[in-house]
Design a protein that fits this description.
256 residues, alpha/beta, 3-stranded antiparallel beta sheet, 9 helices, 14 strands, elongated
């Protein structure tokens, strides 16, 4: 289930080992690699997607373009199931989101949503938030990142300095130690841990990049109610980097 890096690596490894494999993917090969490759400087990820597309053709991989459900798996007569559906966006419980121009990072990065206006906010100061902010700045918007932690891009990664430089060069403002409190149409109110509030213009849109969460519910249900051998890999198991998903897909496929 899922044709991102974890799912594709698992499927191709299984086919090469002689297994009959069916891949369910509701969108297209690559999964959220398409959003991850939207920036001009990440063309190498597009090559990675192209590699999997060609490998799928070479090995005649059976890919069904639909979302697999519990019933799909149970009624499909499968001996094993690898869940590689990726992480799900963390949804913010904030009042007033429906009154403003608000979307989530993946919807912005895949081009599904664009906003007019001058002043844009990005909620979340991780790598994805930084990418969104730089792209918004390229559109000519004045961009501010709101990060609840006291440090921007507080991640143990070798790519962090490059993102910090890109954000700085794009003229993006960063406010740390604050969270989004509520939205009132073209205004966003943020608050720090002491209750001090600030009002910011958000006429150019609010893009929420609050991170991703694993999806383990389907594995737990299948394990409890069926005899199917089931594994969860990639961000569906634990949100990490592309290389981790790829390695994990391969490793699990070698176990079956």
């Amino acid at each position: 289930m899922g044709a991102g890096p974890a799912g594709m690596e698992a499927a191709l490894t299984l086919v090469k080992r002689g297994h009959k494999v069916t891949v369910y993917e509701k969108r297209k090969i690559g999964g959220t690699l398409h959003e991850a490759s939207s920036a001009d400087y990440k063309k190498d990820i597009k090559l990675f997607i192209n590699y999997y597309e060609k490998q799928a053709q070479k090995y005649h991989l059976n890919i069904i373009q639909e979302e697999a459900t519990y019933d799909t798996i149970v009624n499909g007569g499968y001996d094993a199931c690898i869940i590689a559906t990726g992480g799900k966006p963390r949804i913010l419980d904030v009042n007033g989101l429906e009154t403003g121009k608000v979307t989530y990072a993946l919807n912005y990065l895949n081009g599904e949503v664009k906003f007019d206006g001058e002043n844009a906010l990005v909620i979340g100061g991780g790598i994805t938030g930084a990418e969104v902010a730089v792209e918004l700045a390229k559109e000519g918007k004045k961009v501010t990142i709101i990060e609840v932690m006291d440090q921007f891009l507080a991640l143990p990664s070798a790519v962090i300095p490059a993102y910090q430089m890109a954000v700085e060069q794009a003229g993006v403002k960063v406010i740390t130690g604050h969270r989004l409190d509520y939205v009132d149409h073209d205004q966003a109110i943020i608050v720090d841990r002491f209750g001090n509030k600030k009002e910011l213009k958000a006429d150019g849109g609010i893009v929420i990049s609050a991170g991703f969460m694993p999806q383990l519910e389907l594995q737990e249900k299948l394990e409890e109610e069926t005899d199917i051998e089931v594994y969860t890999v990639g961000d569906a198991k634990k949100v990490r980097q592309i290389i981790d998903a790829t390695h994990e897909g391969y490793a699990v496929a070698r176990m079956i």
